[in-house]
Structures are given as C-alpha cells and as structure tokens.
Write a structure and sequence with these properties.
This protein is an alpha+beta fold. The protein is 28% helix and 29% strand. The protein contains 8 helices and 14 strands. The strands form 3 sheets. The chain has a 7-stranded mixed sheet, sandwiched between helices. Strands 10-11-12-14-13 form a 5-stranded mixed sheet. Strands 8-9 form a two-stranded parallel sheet. Strand 10 and strand 11 form a beta hairpin. Helix 1 packs across helix 2 and helix 3 packs parallel to helix 4. The longest helix has 17 residues. It is globular.
C-alpha cells in the first residue's frame, strides 16, 4: 500500500479494538503496557487525557500503526510518547514517520503539555531514526535493560533485555538552577549543551538537610520486572529509607531498579554518591521531571545486555559511553 493512502490522526473510541488487535499481532500478549489490550480502559484513559493516542489507518480504517502520549512523570505536564507498534507488512511504509509528523503539528498546541519525550527501544535503530528525522528531539538518557526480552519473542528482534533511549522536546520553557554532582560534571555538561531550554548551574556541595524526612514513591512493574523509585524529598534518613524500599522491590524479583533524584537539590550530589556506592550508575537527565529536572540512576541485578544496545546518533553514542563507563566504575 502506498504511503499516501495511510492517514495519521487522533485516536477515536472505535479504534480501540483495532489497537488491541495490532499489538496482539506484533507482540502476542507480552507487551508490558497492558492498557493497549484493553479497549474499554484505553477509551477511559483517553477521555481523562491520561493517554493521548495517535493511530495510522488504512482507507478502510484498519489500525496499522499506533503510538501514544501518556503521563509518565511525577509532573503531570510531562508526557511520554511511547507504546509504539507497526504492523510488519507496513514497516517500510513510513508509518512511524507519519505519527511523529502528526505529533509535531498537534502536540505543541495542546493545553497542559509542558514537555514530552520518546523512549525508543535500542534493539534496533528504526524508531530512533524516524524520531530524529521528523521532530527536534534531544537525547538525554539511556535506560539499561528496561524491557523484557519476551516482549520481542514474536518478532525475534532481541537477544536479551532491551534498553531504551530517552529523548525530549520542551513545549513550555522552564529555566532553573541545576546543582551538579562533581562525579557527573562532564556528563551533565555534555547533555545540557544540547538541551532545547535554558538552565543555570551551581556545584552540588551541600549535605542532606537533617530536618528533612525522605519521601519515596515506589512503582513496581511486575511484567517488565522493573522498579522505579521517585525520590520527592531526601533528608538525613535517605540511606535507611532507600534500603527499606530496595528490600521491598527485591522481594518482587525485579531485574532493574531505577531511582529518580531532583537536580534542583543542593545536596543531590550526596544522594548520587550514596547510590553509586550501592551499585547504581548514571542514566542521564530527565528534563522537567519533577517540574524541575531529574537525574536518572539505575541498577541491574544481572550484567546489562550491552551487546544488544544499538543507538543511531553521535549524541546517543556519547551518552551510551557515559552510562557504560559509570556502570563499570560502579562494579568496583
């Protein structure tokens, strides 16, 4: 089918069954974001604006491509563009490009969207190339071993767990001060040089505020075997609070633990140093994640699948180098 016969547009409730069928054909029942298999739940999430799906249709309204913007950060104005699928017969029809072009035309005018990001998988570079060719994404982080290999069994495209690349677009600027941990100063300098928004910088030299109590929100994704710890406040009890959450998530047989810290804290360097001593390593920058920027740190229970990480741009290759270098240092 010619590319011109395909149309990209905002999701309609009548597309929901077609979305479920598309993901079943591409991934079987193994895709971690189970909402794509739930037509009623997807429609309800769309009506709440928790999900803003975009679909590509044939002239007879068959859904052959899908991606969605959905809330994925502590700040509700930061949306992820993800959960992508393209029917195998249409892989060379420019389907993902049509979705990216539609996002570029429509999303900047949507009320309440401060920033959005893509999370393309790194078992191939197809989606990375399409994203960068169609939208001014800026790569800022690499999530190692985020996705389970089983999600790609049907298409036989992964040799192990799959990393994802984080790339952001600022919609509403938010200039603020970033406190730079000395251990990551060269990495952050490189990443921020290319960011599409303004920041100012100060060294992170303060100690934890003794009077502050640590507050961590923990999310566990059992199907992906991933835990994410959003640290909203870090005080003098950070070490013990972190240990308590780690014990909880490791009982759930997770393979990956991510920790999100606030780069707006003057003491973020203390938190990053403590995590590094516990085997966590650098992931990158999360623009506007908490309203202000976040720092991603991560730990894998098994050796990361470095050989399975394929990135396209020179910038992404540098970030991958930072991440692997810090992982090696974290291993002692």
């Amino acid at each position: 089918m010619d590319n011109e016969e395909l149309t990209a547009g905002l999701f309609r409730p009548e597309d929901a069954e077609g979305v479920a069928k598309l993901f079943t054909e591409v991934y079987g029942d193994a895709y971690p974001a189970k909402i794509v298999y739930d037509p009623k739940g997807l429609v309800e999430a769309f009506e709440r604006r928790d999900q803003i799906p975009i679909v590509v249709r044939t002239p007879d309204d068959r859904v052959v491509g899908y991606s969605s913007l959905f809330r994925a950060a502590p700040d509700r104005g930061v949306y992820e563009k993800g959960n992508g699928a393209v029917l195998s017969d249409f892989r060379n029809a420019g389907v993902m490009g049509k979705i990216f072009q539609y996002v570029g035309r429509v999303v900047p005018g949507m009320e309440g969207v401060k920033a959005f990001f893509g999370e393309p998988v790194c078992n191939h570079v197809y989606i990375q190339k399409a994203a960068l060719a169609n939208l001014p994404f800026v790569e800022t982080a690499l999530e190692v071993d985020l996705m389970p290999a089983e999600a790609y069994d049907k298409e036989k495209s992964a040799s192990g767990r799959v990393a994802t690349l984080l790339m952001f677009i600022t919609v509403v600027g938010n200039s603020h001060v970033i406190h730079v941990p000395d251990m990551y100063a060269p990495y952050l300098e490189y990443i921020y040089e290319g960011l599409d928004d303004k920041r100012s910088f100060a060294p992170s030299v303060a100690d934890f505020p003794v009077s502050e109590r640590t507050r961590i929100d923990t999310m566990i994704y059992d199907s992906a075997r991933v835990a994410r710890l959003a640290v909203h406040e870090a005080g003098g009890d950070f070490s013990s609070a972190l240990a308590s959450q780690e014990e909880r998530v490791l009982r759930r047989d997770v393979e990956v633990v991510q920790v999100w810290l606030k780069l707006s804290w003057p003491w973020v360097g203390k938190a990053a140093g403590l995590l590094s001593r516990k085997g966590y390593f650098f992931g990158g920058v999360l623009p506007q994640w908490f309203g202000q920027d976040g720092l991603l740190m991560q730990k894998t229970i098994s050796r990361p699948n470095w050989e399975g990480i394929h990135v396209f741009s020179e910038r992404a290759k540098r970030i991958r180098e930072f991440v692997e270098t810090d992982w090696r240092q974290s291993q002692g």
